[in-house]
Design brief:
Shape of chain A: flat
Strand order of the largest sheet of chain B: 6-7-8-3-9-10
CATH topology of the largest domain in chain A: MetI-like fold
Low-confidence stretches of chain A: none
Strand content of chain A: under 5%
Number of strands of chain B: 21
Number of helices of chain A: 13
Number of strands of chain A: 0
Low-confidence stretches of chain B: 10-15
Number of domains of chain A: 2
Oligomer: heterodimer
Mean pLDDT of chain A: 87
Largest interface: A-B, 17 and 24 residues
Number of domains of chain B: 2
Radius of gyration of chain B: 25 Å
Radius of gyration of chain A: 29 Å
Structural class of chain A: mainly alpha
Distance between the termini of chain B: 34 Å
CATH architecture of the largest domain in chain A: Orthogonal Bundle
Order of helices and strands of chain B: HEEEHEEEHHHEHEHEEHHEEEEEEEEEEE
CATH topology of the largest domain in chain B: Rossmann fold
Number of helices of chain B: 9
CATH architecture of the largest domain in chain B: 3-Layer(aba) Sandwich
Chain lengths: ~300, ~375
């Protein structure tokens, strides 16, 4: 049997084929619809799961004073929206504004100092050759292994000797110190990823020292710097133990320390409304910073992963 | 040493035609010396190509002229002015890198203008110079894009444009075409030659590609292991190599190097045959006879030649290369331009004009 015979053996009827094609098209459409439904259902479930804590805290912070005395179950206000909880929160410590300003001051100073120091240190470690460079770098990284709690007492004594205990500036210095090993590591990697030729081209173009760093290199390591900034902000904003130990006067407390007082309640009575209001006050800036910097942050973490 | 060298530069500066002068330039990385005392004078307006195998120090030398690499010893002068310890931006040079090294966060316009801004050039002049450079390179329509949105060839144009706006005395090119594909490389090569003709500046160009060296250069500097092997025009380098290294490095397929010994009266014995030598040398001396494939021909009937067995042949259309073995096992490559095919296994007689052969002593130096 020849090939032509095989090919002509089964005559094709056009009508049959078009019906088959229509059926295949339907099948494909059905499959795509099922896929889309599954995809969006799963996505919605995950979103719900992650957003639930924020919604619960947010809603329950708007319950009125009476409801605020009871545990947040169910979490939504049943007797109408009210800002009673925020008013109550303001009666703790030196007032919520004072503590928010304290926290913001400490966190933002930590961010600025950490970014500046780690930018310079990362550049130095990445670009200069000097004796014991790698030993020094490993030593800096190695401090990540020291549990923070173990150096709290020495830190307290050092700050006392320097006259910096119970001051927000002293606390900031401690936070910067804790933040630096990771940040220097991060910034060194960021600078390592910048081709040397770009720097050399800039040198030929006449950019030197600070202008070189600010005009040419900083925009290129911005993802790394944003990552460092996010970590520094979140860690300083949320830090509790050092703030509790190193700060002794009421008006210097940062938000986490205040929250401890709020959570402990007055005379054994916990004001759940105030607790939830405090949670909201503490969460909003973190969300804001993260959303502001997240696109740089993702790039910073991915840097060097793929060429 | 430096005092003397300094005087040499100052006396040399009378000759206004000198653009770049290197006096006993050395470079060490730690205890390892990689550039061993380079003396070189580059005339104004010339196109000089540094060529050599990788690791020969050609890029290091260029970077020393640029000021990106410190000079361990020796002096560098540009236009009669000693620049050895000056900052790269103060030397009157501009450099084009292999990786383009554009500033990725700036538009093309800002890339071009950056050096001028750093030098605090007035804004109108910056705009004029950027426009003129963009015109020369035909990149006006790209000025508002970022490097990431450009193709490789366009990026290289921008990199060259960034050099042009600086109006340098000397252009430095560090393997600028290595990242481009073959077709683009040829067109950019022509572009760079055109640019040199239009601007008339001194250009120093580093490459490992001998085609680029041959086609672009007024003068080729062949480097090996941090030393200059030969300086000359492409024609001189090709036809009149000073030593075996230069002879073997330039030319493709490379020159055949047949080892032999001198015999009496200007003859040399190679693979059991006594052949006429291009120059004479003391009898019995070990020599190398260099002969380029294109100077070899398959001898006709009755003509004497060197018997060789064809191992295989490559047909390239206009020509074919015969890869052969001599009776003593030495390999020899011949270019065969006649249309007839020569099959592997054929025994041929290879002949050449004695004037085309070059003779080298046992140290690899040219015998003239």
């Amino acid at each position: 049997m020849t090939i032509t015979e095989t090919m002509t053996h089964r005559p094709v009827r056009p009508a049959d084929r078009s019906a088959e094609k229509a059926a295949a098209k339907l099948r494909r459409a059905a499959r795509a619809r099922t896929g889309a439904i599954a995809y969006h259902t799963a996505g919605a479930a995950i979103v719900l799961f992650f957003i639930a804590p924020f919604v619960i805290a947010g809603l329950s912070s708007f319950r009125n004073a009476t409801e605020g005395q009871t545990a947040p179950l169910p979490p939504w206000p049943r007797a109408g929206f009210s800002v009673d909880s925020y008013r109550t929160l303001d009666t703790f410590g030196a007032g919520i504004w004072q503590h928010t300003v304290n926290s913001a001051l400490v966190s933002l100073s930590t961010v600025v100092l950490t970014v500046v120091v780690s930018l310079l240190a990362g550049y130095g470690f990445s670009r200069y050759r000097f004796p014991f460079k790698n030993t020094l770098f490993v030593l800096i990284i190695a401090t990540l292994m020291i549990p923070f709690q173990s150096i709290l007492t020495p830190l307290f004594i050092i700050l006392a000797k320097l006259g910096l205990n119970n001051s927000l500036f002293g606390l900031t210095l401690v936070y910067v110190t804790l933040q630096l090993p990771f940040s220097v590591f991060m910034m060194r990697n960021a600078f390592d990823a910048v081709p040397k030729e770009i720097e050399e081209a800039a040198r030929i173009d006449g950019a030197r020292d600070l202008r070189l760093l600010v005009r040419v290199l900083l925009p290129l390591v911005l993802p790394g710097a944003a990552t460092v900034a996010i970590f520094a902000f979140l860690n300083a904003w949320n830090e509790f133990l050092a703030a509790l130990v190193l700060l002794s006067s009421n008006e210097h407390y940062t938000l986490p320390v205040l929250m401890m007082a709020v959570r402990a309640g007055r005379l054994g009575a916990i004001n759940w409304g105030a607790v939830q209001a405090g949670v909201v006050v503490m969460t909003v800036p973190c969300l804001f910073v993260f959303l502001l910097l997240q696109r740089y942050y993702m790039r910073g973490l991915m840097a060097g992963a793929v060429k | 040493m430096n005092m003397m060298a300094r005087e040499m530069i100052h006396s040399g500066s009378d000759v206004t035609a000198t653009s770049v002068e290197l006096v006993d330039v050395r470079k060490s990385f730690g205890a390892v010396e990689v550039i061993h005392g380079i003396d070189l004078t580059i005339p104004e307006g010339s196109f000089v190509v540094f060529v050599g195998p990788s690791g020969c120090g050609k890029s290091t030398l260029l970077r020393m002229i640029a000021g990106l690499e410190e000079v361990t010893d020796g002096l560098i002068a540009i236009k009669g002015r000693e620049v050895t310890d000056l900052d790269p931006s103060e030397r009157g040079i501009a450099m084009v890198f292999q990786s383009y090294a554009l500033y990725p966060h700036m538009t093309v316009r800002d890339n071009l203008a950056f050096g001028l801004k750093m030098a605090r050039t007035p804004a109108e002049e910056i705009a004029a110079r950027v426009a003129s450079a963009a015109g020369i390179l035909k990149i006006e329509h790209l000025l508002d894009r970022r490097p990431g949105q450009l193709s490789g060839g366009q990026r290289q144009r921008v990199a060259i444009g960034r050099a042009i706006v600086r109006k340098p005395d000397v252009f430095l090119f560090d393997e600028p075409l290595s990242n481009l594909d073959a077709e683009l490389r040829v067109s950019m090569r022509i572009e760079i030659a055109r640019l040199h003709r239009e601007l008339g500046n001194t250009m120093i160009y580093v490459t490992h590609d001998q085609t680029e060296a041959m086609t672009l250069a007024d003068r080729i500097v062949v480097l090996r292991d941090g030393r200059i092997e030969q300086v000359g025009s492409p024609r001189e380098i090709y036809q009149d190599p000073d030593n075996l290294f230069v002879a073997g490095f330039i030319g493709s397929p490379r020159m055949n190097m047949l080892s032999g010994a001198m015999e009496e009266e200007g003859h040399v014995r190679v693979a059991g045959q006594t052949l006429p030598a291009p120059v004479s040398a003391p009898q019995g001396e070990t020599v190398t006879l260099g002969i380029r494939p294109e100077h070899l021909r398959v001898a006709g009937a009755g003509e004497n030649g060197l018997p060789a067995q064809v191992d295989f042949s490559e047909y390239l259309g206009g020509t074919q290369y015969l890869y052969c073995t001599l009776s003593d096992g030495q390999a020899i490559t011949a270019e065969h331009r006649a249309p007839g095919a020569i099959a592997a296994g054929t025994l041929v007689q290879l002949a050449w004009d004695v004037g085309e052969a070059r003779l080298f002593d046992s140290q690899g130096r040219r015998l003239r």
